[in-house]
Amino acid sequence: MKSEFGDKLRIEVNGESHGEFVAAIAYGVPAGFSVDMEKLASFMKRRQGGNLPYTTPRKEDDIPVFESGIDKEGKTDGKPLTVKIYNKNVRSGDYSGFTDTPRPSHADYTAIKRYGSGIDLRGGGHFSARLTAPLVAIGGILKQMLESKGIFIGTHLAAVGNISDTPFSLTGVCQSDFDRVLRSPVLPVIDAEKGEEMAKVIISAMKELDSVGGIVECAVVGLDAGYGEPLYGGIENRIAGAMFGLGGVRGIEFGLGFEAVKLRGSVHNDPFTVRDGKVVTVTNNCGGVIGGISDGMPVVFRAAFKPTASIAREQDTVSLSEMRNVKINIKGRHDPCIAIRALPCVEAVTAAVLTDIILEKDGEISF
Length: 367
Fold this sequence. Notes:
The protein is α+β, with helices and mostly antiparallel strands. The protein has helices at about 35-45, 110-115, 130-150, 175-180, 190-205, 235-245, 265-270, 340-360, and strands spanning about 5, 10-15, 20-25, 65-70, 80-85, 150-160, 165, 215-220, 250-255, 270-275, 280, 290, 295, 300-305, 315-320, 325-330.
């Protein structure tokens, strides 16, 4: 299984949803950075279940155990940053039988065809979003590192179903926008009223034993021009490649994305201008990346997450042993909208990819 990404900074994840633990190892983490553990815990809490009525009731402590990479003073020491998070609140009985009756839109069937019927599918096994817990732990540290260098990453729930939040400004998004989202009372949105409408959509789906999809918008501010590479080493390529490692991602678009096809070049082009002695663009339809390389404007993209595949309604599947059509009822504890808890995951992956890209160009990040 290819369970890693990155080059100068390489991260691999391992473990299963209902195994003893899930873990991640980051190779190439810069040394000398003092980690704010309270800030990291707050960041990781955003990924936890059981904190909102719209998320899975499965609640794990998600206390990261750093086995290497952080010294006694709480600083990164340049060794592989190894983190384990132990699984405690599991109900494996809810997942019996899926090697014979695969769940619709889950990886059960494809996993069996690829790795055989002995593969662990409890809670989704190695395919579970549970593996994002240690990824968020490492990404949260990298995010702190970038912030110390004036680079900030933030997200908001851009859409749930057919309800859309106010989007980030492509040219004017800033750190205060990220803080505003974190203070939102209902859901992590810019417009609180839209958050309330989204909550109603989610609750309606829950009552109907169903689920709903969502879009996460992410922005990066403070990244100078000149980072990234053309063709296959571009910022967009690498963010997209890593982002598709998050379960449920169905698409990614940068800047105006697919809306660009509705415009002519004279409207879509981003004119350059000098402002306060710095080259900027008047618009930012490209989303801060030209030819795979940052242009100094905010990097803005959106990731679409499908509706949660595990729903309480009866569904159609097959019995692989009997080769006949059967019905299936999925038990367990699941998110009615996975996009909500995906926000810190998107930020963590973005922080990892950008750290890797910065290390490639600058050679190091010193503290």
